[in-house]
Structures are given as C-alpha cells and as structure tokens.
Design a protein that fits this description.
Oligomer: single chain
Number of helices: 14
CATH superfamily of the largest domain: FAD/NAD(P)-binding domain
Structural class: alpha+beta
CATH class of the largest domain: Alpha Beta
Bound molecules: flavin-adenine dinucleotide
Shape: globular
C-alpha cells in the first residue's frame, strides 16, 4: 500500500509536522527508532524523580512553539530571570533589573563586570529587542565572542557572565556560536522566562503525540535507508508519495551525502537527590571562574516540585564536556556548598554526545527539499525547541501547499 506521507523521526520537528498534516486531514505514518516521542526532549522517572535527559528549559516567549502547544496544560513553572554566579568564594546574585528593579543596587555592586558593562547590558537589551525575527538572522555573521567584544563588553564580563550563561546554553565555552543564535536566544530570554513543565520536559512531545492517532505512530521502528518514494525498515519496505526526513542532521546526511553533516556539541550532566536544596531560589547557578569543571547547576524541584518526591530535592549539575569522574564534580560542589554535598545521592550521570548541532557563523545544511523528500529538524533552522518546531511547520506547509 502507498502511504501519502511517511515522517522519519519522532522528535519535536517530526511531531510538529505530523500534527499539522493530521489537522489538515492528511494521512501519514511516523516512524521513530526509539521507544517513545521526543527525540532529544525526554524525561525518565527514576525513584519518583523526573530526570530530563540533560538540563534543558522551555522559553515561554517561543512564538511558533507557543502557538502550537497548549501552554496552560503544560503548567509551565518559571525560573527567576537572572543567575547566581559563583565568584570569589561566594554566590553573587545577578537579576534582570528590568523585571526586578529592587535588585538594581545589589546587582550593580556585584563584582561581575564593570558599571560600564552593566550599562552596556541595557544597551544590548534595547538593541536586540528592537530587531524583528528576520533582522536577527541578518546580524553580522560573526561569533558571539566577537560580537560582544565589538559591542564594548570587558573581557571579565564576557568570561564571568556571558561565557557561563550562554556557554551553558550553546554547550560550548568559547562562544564560537553565531552572534545570530546569541541574539535569537537573548531576545527570547529577555521577552520571557525559562520554564520547566510541571510534568518534566517530556510533557512537551507527549502533548503533541497525544493529538495524533495512535495507529499512525510506529515506535521502535528503525529506518535503514531511503530512496525516492521508498523507506526501508528491518520489517520491509514502505512506499509513500512524499517522505519527511525529521531525523538529526547526521542521519539525514548519511542517507543524502549532498547534505552537510553537522558537527556536534556534547554535554555531561549529573543528577543528585538531596533532602535539602543547596540554594533556596528557582534560579540557575553559574560558575564565574573559567577553570571550574561545573558549568551550571539548578534545583528543578524548586522550579516545579513534581520533579522530586515529597521531602526530597533534585539537583541537576551540567559539567565540562566529557567529564565523567564524579569525585571531581563532588570536590568542586563541596567547595561551593560545603560538607552537605557528601549526603547527596547520585541518581544518574549521562553524557549526551549529540546534544546540539554546531551553529558557527555561515553554516549551511543543504536545500529543504529533494524531489518528494523534505527535510526538517533543528539543524535546518536553529538548535532549539523553537527551531525544531519551526522546521516542522515549514515542511508541513510545503506539503499542504503542493
Ligand atoms: C542536553 C540538551 C539541552 C538542550 N537545551 C535546550 C534548551 O534549554 N532550550 C531549547 O530550546 N533547546 C534545547 N536543546 C535543543 C532541543 O532539544 C533540540 O533542538 C530539539 O529537541 C531537536 O528536535 P528535532 O526534532 O530537530 O531532533 P531530534 O530531537 O534529534 O529528533 C530526531 C528523531 O529522529 C529519530 N531517528 C534518528 N534516526 C532514525 C532512524 N534511522 N529511524 C527512525 N528514527 C530515527 C531519533 O530517535 C529522534 O527521535 C537542548 C538539547 C539537548 C540535548
């Protein structure tokens, strides 16, 4: 039998495309190699804790994702806008003074950047907020570090704040990511809040999958190869009018060598259980010291209590690329928070090798379409939830307009 559309990949891009085709009454099959929806956005239940696969957040200012999702049903819980920065033996609170004006004196006096730097943050905010979505992608095609230096920020401000905060988002501390991606992220952080769904990040793909007919979703179905109109799986060949490749960029490039395979940023994350949280606010903690093995830390159960069983807390610690030695991480955590760290129980350590496709200035991936084969996924737009959703919307739109 010939299907109208086969979608390969059940991450956010593939699910978004499926939802739009289904809403338009167009039949499809979605083939996903893993055991459930979500791709890189998954959560596991371990001893009553919700463990997201790597620390990630949903920004409630995402426009396309916000229109697609039922945000009320996700019950998004916000982080405080700002960060605690570990510097000179103390946690220094840097809040977004536009949303927390009472914090101006304290934030201004923190030894993170100069007074001029703090004034420049306001300038940067006005500049980036004045840009439309299209104008952001037309900014000078330079690295984030070059952009910040040319904007006038001091090396200390770049190291102590931007490198820690955006290094945690881009999963690279050199700030080689395109300034366009920086502006995209900065605009979303400024316009909204970083949040966690009460049910864990998995609630996002689950909500999309719940809108689709169960008989169209095929998990544990590994696609082996693709040619025009034919998808081969271990169970045989399937034919389709059109095929949507919604896998990661590396898999797409393996099947279609004319496409550029992305390189990847990886990340390592330790998740600990504790009776007491090390901080008492729903805020991200950053390193202000370049040599620290810890990139960032947060207590998801202070943001959304359902991340931990009653009376317990979940602590998520993202560390330098590839670091798997728990004793090194514990030593640094004890330096920050003292002996109480000895009582923390490690629930999981994971290394995510293919976390974010590298997005240096001028990256190209290949055309969005090859005959009746369409490509979506974050590697075609921006390495983010919003980018994955936008790419799925675009492909669905192309198919529906044919
Ligand atoms: C640790 C981490 C932190 C992040 N932090 C944030 C954040 O804070 N905010 C944010 O907006 N974004 C963040 N992101 C990025 C965001 O999660 C991704 O950009 C987005 O989820 C990508 O979705 P996708 O559908 O394009 O790709 P994927 O999620 O990779 O989906 C591709 C799917 O294709 C399937 N597949 C691959 N090969 C085959 C095959 N042969 N047959 C069948 N199926 C196949 C895969 O199993 C997968 O389910 C983070 C990502 C990670 C990993």
């Amino acid at each position: 039998m010939k299907e109208e559309t086969i979608i390969v990949g059940g991450g956010l891009a593939g699910l978004t495309c499926a939802v739009k085709l289904h809403e338009a009454g167009r039949p499809f099959r979605l083939l996903e190699s893993s055991d459930g929806p979500g791709g890189r956005v998954r959560t596991d239940l371990v001893d009553g804790f919700r463990l997201d696969r790597g620390f990630q957040v949903y920004l409630d200012s995402y426009r396309n994702a916000g229109q697609l999702l039922d945000l009320d049903a996700l019950d998004l819980r916000p982080f405080l806008p700002g960060a605690l920065v570990w510097k000179e033996g103390k946690l220094r609170e840097i809040l977004d003074v536009f949303r927390h004006p009472f914090s101006i004196p304290r934030t201004a006096l923190q030894p993170v950047g100069t007074i001029k730097d703090k004034w420049l943050v306001a300038q940067l905010r006005f500049h980036i907020l004045s840009l439309s979505a299209a104008e952001i992608w037309e900014l000078p095609n330079v690295t984030t570090e070059t952009y910040l230096r040319e904007f006038g920020f001091s090396p200390n401000m770049i190291d102590d704040f931007f490198r820690s905060f955006y290094g945690g988002i881009f999963l690279e501390n050199e700030l080689k990511t395109s300034a366009r991606m920086f502006a995209f992220t900065f605009q979303h952080f400024t316009n909204g809040c970083a949040t966690l769904p009460a049910g864990g990040m998995q609630a996002i793909p689950n909500q999309l999958a719940s809108r689709l007919p169960a008989e169209s979703l095929f998990y544990k179905t590994d696609v082996e190869s693709i040619r025009e109109g034919v998808v081969s799986t271990g169970a045989g060949e399937l034919r389709a009018e059109q095929i949507v490749i919604a896998t990661d960029g590396s898999t797409a490039a393996k099947w279609f060598p004319e496409r550029v395979a992305p390189e990847w940023h990886s990340t390592s994350c330790f998740q600990f259980a504790s009776d007491r949280p090390p901080v008492n606010q729903p805020i991200v903690v950053l390193k202000g010291d370049r040599d620290s093995p810890i990139n960032n830390l947060c207590v998801p159960s202070l943001v959304a209590p359902s991340y931990a069983p009653p009376g317990k807390h979940l602590i998520s610690v993202s560390v330098s690329d590839g670091l798997s030695d728990e004793s090194i991480v514990r030593r640094e955590l004890e330096h920050w928070f003292g002996g109480e760290v000895k009582d923390w129980v490690c629930l999981r350590h994971e290394l995510i090798r293919k976390a974010l496709p590298i997005n240096p200035p001028g990256h190209l991936v290949g055309p969005p379409r090859n005959g009746n084969i369409f490509f979506c996924g974050d590697h075609t737009t921006s390495a983010s939830i919003e980018g994955a959703v936008l790419s799925g919307l675009r492909v669905a739109d192309r198919i529906l307009r044919r």
